[in-house]
Amino acid sequence: MVRWPFVGSARHFEIVGADGAYLIASDGRRILDAAGGAIVSNVGHGRASVARAVADATQNETYVVPPWLTKSRRRLLERLERDWLSPRFPAMHLTSGGSEAVETAMKIAIQYHAARGEPERRQIIGRDVSYHGTTLATTAVGGHEARKKGLAHVLARYPKAPTPYPLRCPLGAHHPNAGRYYADALEATIAREGAATIAAFLAEPITGSSGGAIVPPDDYWPAVRRICDRHGILLIADEVMTGFGRTGRKFGHQHWPIEPDVLVAGKGLAGGYAPIAGVYATAAIADAISSAGMNVMFHTFGAHPASCAAAEEVLRILTDEHLVERCAERGERLQKRLVQAFSNHPHVAEVRGRGLLQAIEIVADRATLAPFPIEANVTDRVVGAALSRDVFFYPGGTGVVRDIVCLGPPFTIDDSEIERMVEVLEASVDDAVRRANS
Ligand SMILES: Cc1ncc(COP(=O)(O)O)c(C=O)c1O
C-alpha cells in the first residue's frame, strides 16, 4: 500500500481540475483556492496559453544543461530584465525551487567575500521568525521551530536577529519606536558575533506564512540597509513568497526605498504552472566570484525549459492584464473586509498583510495576546472547518508563533469570491474557537 503523504493523513478527495480561483475535486466539489496553493497561484489556474507554452518547450527543448541558452530560457531572461528586475540585478541563476534558490544565495554571499579575500566572513544572520526552505542549511538559518523537529541536533548554528513583530513588540504593541528597536537588535547581533565574521543578513521583506504576513515598521528596512552597508554585509532579500507581485508591488522590498544585494524569488514566477525560482545579484558580486575562478554550480533541473516557458508566459499575463496593480487593489479590498469582519472579534488579535498576502492571528485572550495551547490545534481546525465549506486557507505560524491563518488567492479574484472567503473564514474561526474553549 503506497503511503502518501510520507507522514500525516491524506485528504479524502483527489483534485481533477483547476479553473481560475477554483480546484475541482473528483467528487465534484469546487474548492475556492483562497491560498493559491502554498501562496503560489497568481494568474489563476487552468490557463491554456501557459499549457501551450509548456507543451512547445517540452517538444522542442526537452532537456538542455542549464548554462546553455534555449529559446524559452532566453525569452524568460529577456523578460525578467525588461519588465521585472532592477538593472541592479543583471546576474541571474535559476533553480527549481525556493529552498535551492535561498541556499544558492547563501553560498554566493560566502563565495563573494572569499573571492575578495575575506574568507572569515562566513556567517549568515537569519531571523527568529522566518522560513527559508527545507534543506539543512535553509532550515538552520530559518526561524521555523516546528520544521526543525528531529533535526535541531544536527543543524548548524546561524545567529538570529529578532523579526519585527509590531503587534508583539517588547516596547508595546505597534510602538512608534518599534522600527528602531528591531534595527538596533540587528546591530546588537552583529556586534555580538563580530561584523568581520558576517557575510550576509537574510530576511523576508514582509514575513510570509511563518509569521503571517507581518509588515515591519516603515523605518526598519532603510535602517537595516544602512547597517549592512556600514559593516560590509550583503543584504539578501528572500522574496520566494513576496516576489512577482504578491504584495501589490513587483517585489516586496519595493514598499520601502531600499534595494538588496541579492534577491531571491520563486513561487509566483511561474504561478504554480512549473517548478522554478531564481537568484538575482549585482554585477559586482558575479564579477568577484568569476574573477576568483569560482563557480555557482547549477542544479540538474535548474532553468528547465518547460519551467522557463511557463514562467515567461505567466509574467506576460501578469504584465498584459495589469495583475500587479489589480493585486494591490484587490488586496486593499480584502484587507478592508477582513478588518470589518474581525476588528471586534474577541479571538482575533490582528488582520495584517500587504496586497494579496494577508493573515489573521487568533489568540485565546485579546487583551494579553496569550495564544491558545498548542494542543488545541486551532490553526488546523480553522483550515479544516473552512475546507469542509469548500474554501482553502493556508496554515501559518512556526509552532512558537501561532495561530496564523494566511490568505493568498490568485490576483484575479472578484468581489463575490472575496466575500465568500471572509464569510467562511469568520464561520471557521468561530467553529475552531468554540471547540478550543469547550
Ligand atoms: C520565504 C520563503 N523562502 C523559501 C521557501 C522555500 O521554497 P520551496 O518550498 O520552493 O523550496 C518558502 C516556501 O514557502 C518561502 O515562503
What does this 3D model show about the protein?
By secondary structure, the chain is α/β, with parallel strands linked by helices. The chain contains twelve helices and 15 strands. The chain has helices at 36-39, 48-61, 71-84, 98-115, 136-141, 178-193, 220-231, 283-291, 305-320, 323-342, 378-387, 415-437; strands at residues 15-19, 22-25, 30-33, 91-95, 123-127, 160-161, 198-203, 234-238, 262-265, 277-281, 348-354, 357-362, 391-392, 394-396, 404-407. The strands form three sheets. Strands 4-10-9-8-7-5-6 form a seven-stranded mixed beta sheet, sandwiched between helices. A four-stranded mixed beta sheet has the order 1-2-3-13. Strand 1 and strand 2 (22-25) form a beta hairpin. The radius of gyration is 21 Å and the shape is globular.
What form results from the Cα inertia axes? globular
Strand order of the largest sheet: 4-10-9-8-7-5-6
The fraction of residues assigned to DSSP E strands is: 15-25%
Order of helical and strand elements: EEEHHHEHEHEHEHEEEHHHEEHEEEH
- Ligands bound, unique: pyridoxal-5'-phosphate
Backbone CA Rg? 21 Å
With helices defined by DSSP (H or I, 4 residues minimum), what is the helix count? 12
**Low-confidence runs of at least 5 consecutive residues:** none
The overall strand count is 15
Kindly name the structural category: alpha/beta
Main sheet properties: 7 strands, mixed
Task: Report how far apart the termini are.
Answer: 38 Å
Q: What is the helical fraction, as a range of percent?
A: 25-40%
What number is the mean pLDDT? 97
